Amino acid sequence: MASNYHTYVLLNKPLIIDSPETVATFDGSVSNLKVAHLDSETIALVVTALATPSGDLFNSEKATNSQSTGKVYTSLFVRHWDAYVSENKNAIWYTTLKKPSKNLKTYVNSPLRNAFKGHSFAIESPVPPFGGAGDFDISKNGLVFVAKDPKINPANYTKTDLYYIPLKFTESQAPSPQLIKTGNLKGYSSNPVFSPDAKSVVFTRMKSMQYESDKPRLLVVPDITDLSNTQEFYETEDGEGGCKQALVLHEIQLRLL
Predict the structure, then answer these.
(1) How confident is the model at residue 248, as a pLDDT?
(2) What is the pLDDT of residue 249?
(3) What's the CA gap between 229 and 22, in Å, rounded?
(4) 203: helix, coil or strand?
(5) 224 in Cβ contact with 175 (< 8 Å)
(6) What confidence score (pLDDT) does residue 7 get?
(7) CA-closest candidate to residue 99, choices 154, 41, 32
């Protein structure tokens, strides 16, 4: 349940809809919630929300309103589809929930932390303006997500890369994102999904970094602890990829979900 200023995470027991329990409250508008069991007592909870230039959770109630309608732009990429580019960027946030026990009468959550804060390069995910829950996935082994290449001009290229953070979800500072390389495929990446055992990740990627309507190619990282091994389904000698994978992709992702 969210407003422009706060978000509440509610928990209901099956078949009991009249008494939801508030298990977490966040000081801002968050969305795209995903959870994963870390152990029998701990749940990883991940959401997406805007981050301020300092990396803190954006809250529109606390934001300073501009006293002028004038704007100064220093680059060409000032608007993407129906949204203007602002100083606040999409980010993925994480925390944990501890289940009630003999010594714990209710759920307890740790502080909400920005997985992108404090790193040597700036990235944004979900990818604006239409990115959402399909741009990332979580498991007990960490976080995978897609983001635009920070080294290229977003006005000219549609390239997005897949990154992995070996996150335990309890760190005060998330480890640095690791780039998953895909050889000659350098275009738009999307839809990363962990396997049920959390060991592998499948995702799609296009070949050209300037053509977002290219054919999506289906890839797998068989072992998420070994990012040097990325394999393509239906790979062909001419580098164009097999034609069957568009039909297979949807079925594989449904099975993993």
Answers:
(1) 55
(2) 54
(3) 42
(4) strand
(5) no
(6) 92
(7) 41
Side chain identity, residue 36: A
Which residue's structure tokens are 């990429």?
77
Rounded mean pLDDT, 21-50: 93
Encoded tokens for 60: 């529109």
The separation between the first and the last C-alpha atoms of the chain, rounded to the nearest angstrom, is 24
Q: What is the pLDDT of residues 214-233, one digit of tens each?
A: 888 999 999 999 999 999 98
Q: Which amino acid is at 4?
A: N
Phi, psi of 158 (to 5 degrees): -105, 10
Query: Which burial class, exposed, middle or buried, applies to 183 when counting CB atoms under 10 A from its CB (0-12, 13-18, 19+)?
Result: exposed
The pLDDT of residue 1 is above 80: no
Cα separation, 239 vs 187, whole angstroms:
14
Asked whether the whole model's pTM tops 0.90, one would answer no
**199, amino acid identity:** K
Q: What is the mean pLDDT of residues 136-153?
A: 95
Can you name the residues that pair with 99 across neighbouring β-strands?
none
Non-local (6+) Cβ contacts of 154 within 8 A are: 77, 80, 148
Q: How far apart are CA 43 and CA 23, in angstroms?
A: 12
Q: Residue 170: which of 125, 140, 145 has the closest Cα?
A: 140
Instruction: Please give the residue that has the higher pLDDT: either 233 or 19.
Output: 233
Highest mean pLDDT among 39-43, 98-102, 246-250: 39-43
Distance CA 218, CA 232 (A): 6
Residue 177 contacts residue 164 (beta carbons within 8 Å): yes
CA dihedral sign of residues 15, 20, 24, 30: positive
Greater pLDDT, 244 or 215: 215
Whether residue 44 contacts residue 24, with contact meaning beta carbons closer than 8 Å, is answered with: no
Q: Distance between CA atoms of 118 and 104, rounded to whole angstroms? A: 33
